[in-house]
Design a protein that fits this description.
Chain A: Keywords: Cell membrane, Membrane, Transmembrane, Transmembrane helix, Transport. Chain A: Pfam families: BPD_transp_1 (PF00528), OppC_N (PF12911). The structure holds two protein chains of two kinds. Chain A is mainly α. In chain A, 73% of the residues lie in helices and 0% in strands. Chain A is elongated. By secondary structure, chain B is of the alpha/beta class. Chain B has a domain at 2-11 and 22-78 and 157-243: 3-Layer(aba) Sandwich (Rossmann fold), CATH 3.40.50. Chain B has a six-stranded mixed sheet with strand order 6-7-8-3-9-10, with helices on both faces. In chain B, helix 4 (111-124) packs across helix 5 and helix 5 (141-154) packs parallel to helix 6. Chain B is globular, with a radius of gyration of 19 Å. Chain B starts with a strand and ends with a helix. The chains are: A mainly alpha, B alpha/beta. The complex binds adenosine-5'-triphosphate (ATP) and magnesium ion.
């Protein structure tokens, strides 16, 4: 609770959280709040400017841009977020197991990670799509398969760094089992690093999904997705540049909000990373005062 | 009575290779009575910390056993610890209150009762209730070690393993913490296993001093009889101190003079 308060006391973080919450809510409610069906073609309205009925105007097929942006939230944000969380969760579990169990298990899991990390991401994704067929679900699956190893690496290093710390040893003298150690001590200690990695991968995945949709491997044509909207708008980039604005703005907005939020999360989780507390000096240290006195006496 | 009998421990110098094992402890036997302070002194790498971890039950010895009043595997409630590195001995995200609550988890105490106990304990180690909401990075080294001592006391343990607990503090702060430990011992009748490489600190605090050399206890001496050491390594160690390498409070010199 205290952490949440600290997080919200940071204005940028609170704003980012609000923006993300609004985006997610809009995505979940898209079918009900979108003014028009996202794939309703009306060639009479081709490249129409904004109007009351079509607040963001219409695209090259006369479809409602606002409705398409709203419907694009699910594949662009919600599903990507779910995929990032899945790979972060799986990778963290593997990494922590490796860091805690050490020995053979560690060696085995880390070699597996090395193998995963040695494939270039796009090639692997294309291979998975080649085997399983096109579509968003397969892209996200390929993504989870690729990215967990990064999380595993980071989690393992963090666990190993903390495993011999005094507070972990003390908890062990109290009889804490491995799961308690992980849950109460190690996971919170590793969370800032994992949050940064997760927000970074969220941004790259969002862009990758858009890129693959642009290649025709992801979301299929009539469906709305921000990356695909961008690539469609690109065809009229010089005559109708304003078509790039809505999807482009949404991508930038979402990725920045996620990044700001993860930065703030890091600060809120780690009391040492700034915040209002650190400004307060440490007054009246008995030892420091005593040491100063001793020094005076010595002179 | 906390007793270790015939403890042996070795580590494989390369993981997975059975053949190359490096013996860290061999045939270590020691006893520490209720309320006694036993110093364990030795050079770096002599196996002091390993012995400490075994006494705490954090590691199993290859041979031998640690018993408490004759019972095996009773470490959990009876032995607690203060470690060397004050920067990592409290979870960086925990306040002092949260850190001190760790040993009280599972004990059903009311909020007011808990707060009273925490404040009382902090006062005993020379701090006060205003420290409860601080984070470890807002404490000085000496304050952090005091909090760790309070935390060890709150476990209700009968012995505390102090592994180089004062070694990383300034000399003046070291003296204060040593005095605090002495006072606490008087108050709680708690025993210490004081692991150090600093003979002077050991001579100040401990009733008996065990000298660990290359994984074996080569000699155990009572406080007033340090001069009677017979083992060559122990004599060497003492000679080093006499020749003035030891600095600071002069506890050892007082000990020598007392003997005449
Ligand atoms: N987990 C481990 N795996 C392999 N070797 C270890 C392990 N722990 C300790 N050792 C080895 O055991 C020996 C004794 O280590 P230990 O930490 O007990 O020494 P120490 O007396 O506490 O030294 P110091 O005064 O420097 O703290 C060292 O040679 C060390 O390399
Ligand atoms: Mg040591």
């Amino acid at each position: 609770m205290k952490r949440l308060q600290r997080l919200l006391s940071d204005r940028l973080a609170a704003a980012s959280l609000a923006v993300l919450a609004a985006i997610l809510a809009a995505g979940a409610l898209a079918p009900w709040i979108a003014p028009h069906p996202p794939d309703e073609v009306d060639m009479a309205l081709r490249y129409a400017p904004w109007s009351l009925d079509y607040p963001l105007g219409n695209d090259q097929l006369g479809r409602c841009v606002l409705s398409r942006v709203l419907h694009g939230i699910r594949p662009s944000v919600l599903y990507v977020l779910a995929a990032v969380l899945a790979s972060a969760g799986f990778g963290t579990a593997v990494g922590m197991a490796a860091g805690l169990l050490r020995g053979r298990t560690d060696a085995l899991l880390m070699r597996l990670c090395d193998v995963m990390l040695s494939f270039p991401g796009y090639v692997m994704t294309l291979a998975v799509i080649g085997v399983l067929g096109t579509g968003l679900a397969n892209i996200l699956l390929a993504f989870i398969l690729m990215k967990w190893a990064w999380f595993a690496r980071v989690a393992r290093t963090a666990v190993q760094r903390h495993a011999d710390a005094g507070y972990v040893l003390f908890a062990r003298t109290l009889g804490a089992g491995r799961l308690t150690l992980l849950r109460r001590h190690l996971l919170p200690a590793c969370l800032p690093e994992l949050a940064v990695l997760a927000s970074g991968s969220f941004g790259t995945t969002l862009l990758q999904v858009s890129g693959l949709s642009f290649l025709g491997l992801g979301i299929q044509a009539p469906h709305a997705e921000w990356g695909m909207m961008l690539s469609e708008a690109r065809q009229a980039m010089f005559s109708r540049p304003e078509q790039l604005l809505a999807p482009g703005f949404m991508i930038v907005l979402t990725v920045s909000a996620v990044n700001f939020l993860s930065d703030a999360l890091q600060t809120a989780l780690d009391p040492q990373a700034g915040g209002p507390r650190q400004a307060a000096a440490v007054p009246g240290e008995p030892e420091a005062a005593a040491a100063a006195m001793l020094r005076k006496e010595a002179v | 009575m906390l007793a270790a009998e015939g403890i042996a421990k070795s580590y494989s110098s390369r993981p997975g290779r059975r053949a190359q094992r490096q013996a860290v402890l061999e045939e270590v036997t020691l006893r520490c009575a209720e309320g006694e302070c036993l110093g364990i002194i030795g050079a770096s790498g002599s196996g002091k910390s390993t012995l400490g971890r075994i006494l705490l039950g954090l590691e199993r010895p290859d041979q031998g056993k640690v018993t408490i009043d004759g019972r095996e595997r009773a470490h959990r409630d009876a032995v607690s610890a203060v470690f060397q590195d004050y920067r990592s001995s409290i979870h960086p995200f925990f306040t002092v209150r949260q850190a001190l609550l760790e040993p009280l988890r599972g004990k059903r105490l009311g909020r007011a009762e808990t707060d009273r106990r925490l404040e009382e304990m902090l006062e005993q180690v020379g701090l006060d209730g205003s420290y409860l909401e601080r984070y470890p990075h807002e404490l000085s080294g000496g304050q952090a070690q005091r909090v760790c001592i309070a935390r060890a006391l709150l476990t209700g343990a009968r012995w505390i393993v102090l592994d180089e607990a004062v070694s990383s503090l300034d000399a003046s702060v070291q003296a204060q913490v040593l005095e605090l430990l002495e006072r606490i011992r008087g108050m709680h009748g708690i025993g210490y296993l004081f692991i150090t490489h600093d003979l002077e600190a050991a001579a100040f605090l401990c009733d008996r001093i065990a000298i660990l050399h290359e994984g074996r206890i080569v000699e155990t001496l009572a406080r007033g009889r340090l001069g009677e050491a017979r083992h060559p390594y122990a004599r060497e160690l003492l000679a080093l101190f006499r020749s003035g390498l030891g600095t600071g409070t002069g506890a050892l010199n007082a000990d020598k003079e007392g003997k005449g």
